[in-house]
Design goal:
The complex is a heterotrimer of chains A (about 300), B (about 300) and C (about 450).
Chain A lengths: L1 H40 L16 H8 L2 H32 L6 H13 L3 H10 L6 H8 L14 H11 L2 H11 L4 H9 L4 H12 L1 H16 L3 H6 L14 H11 L3 H29 L8
Chain B lengths: L1 H21 L12 H33 L2 H4 L14 H8 L3 H32 L5 H11 L4 H14 L7 H4 L7 H12 L3 H9 L4 H12 L1 H17 L2 H6 L8 H5 L10 H22 L1 H4 L5 H4 L1
Helix pairs in contact in B: 2-15, 4-15, 5-9, 5-12, 6-9, 12-15
Chain C lengths: L1 H17 L21 E7 L6 H15 L3 E7 L4 H11 L6 E5 L3 H6 L7 H6 L8 H6 L1 E2 L2 E2 L2 E5 L3 E5 H6 L11 H11 L1 E3 L2 E4 L10 H9 L15 H17 L1 H12 L13 E4 L3 H8 L5 E5 L11 E3 L1 E5 L7 H11 L2 H11 L2 E2 L2 H8 L6 H13 L3 E3 L14 H9 L4 H20 L1
Parallel strand pairs in C: 1-2, 1-3, 12-15
Antiparallel strand pairs in C: 3-13, 4-5, 6-13, 6-14, 7-10, 7-11, 8-9
Helix pairs in contact in C: 2-14, 9-10, 14-15, 15-16, 17-18
The chains are: A mainly alpha (about 300), B mainly alpha (about 300), C alpha+beta (about 450).
Keywords (chain A): Cell membrane, Membrane, Sugar transport, Transmembrane, Transmembrane helix, Transport
InterPro entries (chain A): ABC_transporter_permease (IPR051393), MetI-like (IPR000515), MetI-like_sf (IPR035906)
Main location (chain A): membrane
Chain lengths: ~300, ~300, ~450
């Protein structure tokens, strides 16, 4: 009996390896090499084209002790992540709840709200720069209807990051899609049972919908955390000269890293930066994974 | 043979649900069920309609700019409606660069990337979600970790690698990696597979089904909405990818739409009307695809009712 | 369902077939550096893809290909900015293009990093440095050797509305010559209606910014020849304070509203007369020509801080470089010589209304009868202004020094730092940067 179990388990393992094999092959072939290279080069003065001498931990030491812009960029990025991740997550869940209903024109609405997520790239950022213009932009025009004197948005260091968060909120349609897909998996019979018990819509949402979509909420939080730390192009396009201004308020981590790598050609230094970021994000993700069993509810799990 | 019975019973459940939920889909949206419920639907509708104005106004700016003459684009204050509707802008845009060729190129790359992503990721994710094996957690941590390293620092070594493979100026670097899974999609699909009850898989195994069969016959159908999501995300990603094609393609005959659009953005000035017209044309297939792909969300299948 | 799948497969198949599968053919790594006629093939990368510029550069290439039978130049367009990321990757992979257009202010840096090839070997044989404005030529040098050949350039001048001048009782043939006159004229040109301005005389931070005015005031860059940092200077302090008086005068609301119009290119207020003077590159003329044909305007050098301090202006430009590791540097250099010679440069200048690096070509272009009267006037001004124009090549020791100055100055304009503090901090930060980098 025991022996049979063992072979069963071994057989399962073999299946497991077969299933994940494509990823292992792809990883070894395309990703592992560059990753190892970038790790090694973070201990050198690698400049891409002509030098790569071992410098020990100089890059790391320099970052922590001598580089004020490193700390500025880290702070800006943390600020952005701390606000944008919860706000976009909540926004996307609420939106998908509205879009998961049987009302006229729902297909049209879904397409419409997804649109901003499709529109990507520089064009959108340029568009938002016009919308956020303090004098002539649409955002402040709308605020003025409610007698609100809008801020200077991208010109005021206190408002630049909120500007980007606002723009992110506009395009929550991407994660909305995830939640919508996940809500399709929630059984209608659960709602019907709840209705018989007299639970109102909010209670149903709170006690049925939310628990059932926690696996996707978890996914969304983890990936937008990872993505949030890598914010780059928004700041590159929307700050003056792509420098992260005004007053360094949009100097995000990756923007600073980009500048070190491709403008100053301090690639070794940039690689050291990337590994520091990696450690930060990895630790946060581990915390997330540890906390997950407390609130993420997998229907498939044995209880 | 027992497998087929299992399969059939599952289909039955699915149909049963359809009829169940069918009661919700009665005509006369706002009158049938209780008043309270209809009120909520009305509020829902009004919220969505109001929100769509916020979503639409930036889009309208794109559309109206795309129809203006350059002189009107440059006039101040900006006009809300174009003075004259210059549909010919779209023709001129299309002719400003070999866009027909670019469309075919982009379509080729995108199709292959979508196929690769859907097949590889759903396969790999099943392994991570539903099969216990030694080292799984470590491997999965590495999968997640690959997302956390900023692409800039691997860009150069990766380019050198593809150059050594002699793949520069071909579509291989853009397409081949898609067939080996990507962290984001593996993670996403894993989350969906995790919600499939283990009893269902155990039952199938009892009937003698192996994991390939279970993946194909149970895993795939049950995660259709998620796969549709992966397909849409991959399409969107490949369609809008700019840096990849830019780095790896040298021959202008191989260029994609996103590179083509750049011709309207000069170093000094931007031809806004053509840029917007071009952006909208490039956007159109994605919108259409999404509009028609939606039914895969609506058709979502749930097992929780039956499985428990 | 089956049918659909069939359709999909069919569609896909035809798409693949149509794309000629060219995207899936790997070529020989030796790369066809020689074509079937036995000519050496030169891969030339530019960011000139617009309807206006592309035909001009391709005509120049076609002319070159016609002119001899040993070299065949092949042009590839790549988007501005990204072109250099790609170039860098290709240099790292050892298979770069043969000639690339790149920014003149960072040429020396690329020389030091061994991205651009040292051209002194070619120049010894065939010195063409005399063709160009000395300021441009010097910017290409690193430790005495040149790493790129200047192609085009620009400068900053003052455009002014002659009708507005007359309207305000000023002599339209006598533009402001000093900062004091600039202020005086602007005050006369302002037309205020309640809190709003119907016409603004001048605002110094539209079109150019504080760095150009500092250059204009002091006539010197942030670094001297020995890489000593000279940011915290009396002249820079005066400049910042002077700029602040303009900001106070018009107020942030007015400034932001006008700036929006200028930035978005949606109707520059200079076009309709609501801005009377505007400092910008001479190529701004092409926008006037296209969008405000009737405008009665003049151009002048930037005013001087005080009589005799000099009308120093700022410029940049682009060079043709041969990336390190390129296969046929001799042939590449042949082509670059043609590209920067009088004929090609004059053609470029006239067709694009662009400042070129070749002095003779620039002067020919100014006299060209292809320009209108206004065009010739502006072009002549651009050419004349070159003698006051300084470039700001980045010091190889601290290529990113501006990121240690701009944030402080921005804080000053926002009111959270005094001018003294901003300059002192910039001076200290940049000195610190230089120290760290020279370790």
């Amino acid at each position: 009996m025991g022996k049979k179990r063992l072979t069963m388990r071994r057989k399962e393992s073999i299946y497991g390896y077969i299933f994940v094999m494509p990823w292992i092959i792809g990883f070894l072939a395309f990703t592992a090499g560059p990753l190892v290279f970038s790790f090694m080069a973070s201990f050198t003065n690698y400049n891409i084209t002509s030098q790569m001498d071992f410098v020990g931990v100089d890059n790391y030491q320099g970052l922590f002790t001598e580089d004020s812009l490193f700390w500025t960029s880290l702070w800006n990025t943390l600020y952005f992540v701390a606000f944008s991740v919860p706000l976009t997550t909540i926004g996307a869940i609420l939106l998908s709840a509205l879009l998961n209903q049987d009302i006229p024109g729902i297909r049209f609405f879904r397409t419409l709200y997804y649109l901003p997520a499709v529109l990507s790239g520089v064009g959108v950022y340029l568009l938002w720069m016009q919308l956020l213009d303090p004098g002539t932009g649409m955002v402040n025009l709308i605020l003025s209807w409610f007698n609100i004197d809008g801020p200077s948005w991208l010109f005021d260091p206190d408002w630049t990051k909120p500007s980007l968060i606002l723009m992110k909120m506009w395009s929550v349609g991407g994660s909305m899609l995830l939640y919508l897909a996940s809500m399709q998996g929630v059984s209608k019979s659960l709602y019907e049972a709840a209705e018989i018990d007299g639970a109102n819509t909010w209670k149903q949402f709170r006690h049925i919908t939310i628990p059932m979509i926690t696996p996707v909420i978890f996914f969304d939080v983890v990936t937008s955390l990872i993505g949030g730390f890598q914010i780059f192009q928004e700041a590159y396009v929307m700050s003056s000269n792509g420098e992260g201004g005004p007053a360094n308020s949009l100097l995000f981590y990756n923007l600073y890293m980009w500048r070190q790598a491709f403008e100053n050609f301090n690639m070794g230094y940039a690689m050291a930066m990337s590994w520091i970021l990696f450690v930060i994000v990895f630790v946060l993700t581990l915390i997330n994974l540890k906390l997950a069993p407390r609130w993420v509810h997998y229907e498939g799990e044995e209880k | 043979m027992a497998k087929t019975t299992d399969d059939a019973s599952y289909v039955e459940k699915k149909d049963g649900l359809k009829t169940l939920s069918g009661t919700n889909k009665n005509p006369g949206y706002f009158e049938h069920r209780g008043n309270r419920k209809n009120m909520l639907k009305l509020i829902n509708f009004i919220l969505l309609a109001a929100g769509s104005l916020l979503i639409l106004s930036p889009l309208w700016w794109m559309i109206s700019t795309s129809l203006k003459t350059m002189a009107e684009v440059m006039s101040f204050p900006p006009t809300f409606f174009p003075e004259s509707w210059n549909w010919s802008n779209y023709i001129r845009t299309w002719e400003a660069a070999p866009f027909t060729r670019y469309t075919i190129n982009t379509l080729t790359i995108t199709t292959l990337v979508v196929i690769g992503n859907v097949i590889s990721n759903s396969f790999i994710a099943y392994g991570f979600a539903k099969i216990p094996f030694r080292g799984k957690n470590v491997l999965f941590a590495i999968v997640l970790a690959t997302m956390m390293i900023p692409g800039f620092v691997t860009l150069i070594p990766q380019y050198v690698l593809f150059a050594k493979l002699n793949w520069v100026n071909t579509y291989f670097p853009l397409v081949v990696p898609a067939f080996f899974g990507s962290a984001f999609n593996i993670f996403l699909l894993r989350q969906f597979y995790m919600t499939i009850p283990n009893e269902l898989i155990e039952a199938a195994k009892m009937e003698g089904a192996n994991h390939f069969y279970i993946w194909w016959k149970i895993g795939l159908p049950l995660t259709k909405p998620a796969i549709a999501t992966v397909a849409i995300f991959s399409f969107n990603g490949a369609w809008n990818d700019f840096l990849g094609p830019l780095l790896y393609l040298n021959d202008e005959n191989l260029y994609t739409l996103q590179i083509g659009l750049q011709v309207f953005k000069g170093q000094m000035s931007t031809q806004w009307n053509y840029l917007m017209a071009g952006s909208l044309l490039v956007l159109l297939p994605v919108i259409l695809l999404f509009f028609f792909f939606q039914k895969y969300f609506i058709q979502g299948i749930n097992l929780q009712s039956g499985g428990k | 369902m089956k049918k659909k799948r069939l359709l999909l497969t069919g569609l896909m198949g035809s798409a693949l077939a149509l794309s000629g599968c060219a995207g899936f053919q790997t070529s020989n790594n030796d790369e066809s550096t020689v074509n079937e006629d036995g000519k050496v093939v030169i891969d030339f990368w530019t960011f000139w893809g617009s309807e206006i510029r592309r035909p001009v550069i391709e005509q120049i290439i076609a002319d070159f290909n016609e002119s001899q039978d040993e070299i065949e130049v092949k042009h590839t367009y790549l988007p501005f900015g990204d072109i250099w990321t790609k170039e860098l990757a290709s240099i790292a992979a050892g298979d770069p293009p043969d000639v690339v257009i790149n920014d003149i202010n960072t040429t020396a840096l690329r020389g030091q990093e061994k991205q651009a090839m040292n051209l002194s070997e070619f120049l010894e044989e065939d010195d063409i440095s005399e063709r160009f404005y000395p300021e441009l030529w010097n910017a290409t040098l690193h430790e005495g050797d040149s790493y790129g050949i200047p192609f085009n350039t620009d400068t900053r001048v003052l455009f002014y509305n002659k009708d507005a001048f007359e309207d305000a009782g000023l002599d339209p043939e006598k533009p402001p010559a000093t900062w004091a006159e600039l202020e005086e004229y602007a005050a006369k040109l302002d037309v205020k209606n309640g809190d709003d301005y119907e016409r603004i005389g001048f605002y110094p931070r539209w079109g150019i910014d504080f760095d150009v005015w500092m250059l204009n005031a002091g006539g010197q860059n942030y670094f001297d020849e020995n890489n000593n940092v000279q940011i915290d200077t009396a002249s820079n302090l005066e400049t910042l304070e002077w700029l602040k008086t303009w900001q106070t005068k018009y107020g942030d609301d007015v400034i932001n509203a006008f700036k929006a119009q200028i930035d978005s290119q949606q109707g520059n207020p200079f076009f309709n007369g609501s801005l009377a003077m505007y400092a910008i590159t001479p190529t701004f003329y092409t926008q006037i020509r296209d969008y405000a044909e009737e405008l009665n305007f003049g151009v002048a050098p930037l005013p001087e801080r005080e009589s005799g301090s000099g009308n120093t202006s700022w410029g940049g430009g682009f060079v043709a470089e041969i990336p390190e590791g390129a296969a046929n540097p001799e042939a590449s250099y042949e082509f670059i010589k043609y590209l920067t010679d009088v004929d090609a440069q004059e053609y470029w200048a006239v067709q694009n209304f662009d400042n070129v690096a070749n002095i003779e070509a620039a002067e020919n272009a100014a006299a060209s009868d292809e320009f209108t009267e206004d065009g010739s006037m502006v072009y002549q001004m651009a050419v004349d202004n070159m003698e006051h124009t300084l470039l700001t090549p980045v010091p190889v020791i601290a290529p990113d020094f501006t990121s240690y100055i701009n944030p402080n100055v921005e804080e000053f304009f926002l009111g959270s730092m005094t001018a003294e503090e901003a300059l002192a901090k910039s001076q200290a930060d940049v000195e610190n940067l230089v120290d760290n980098n020279s370790q």
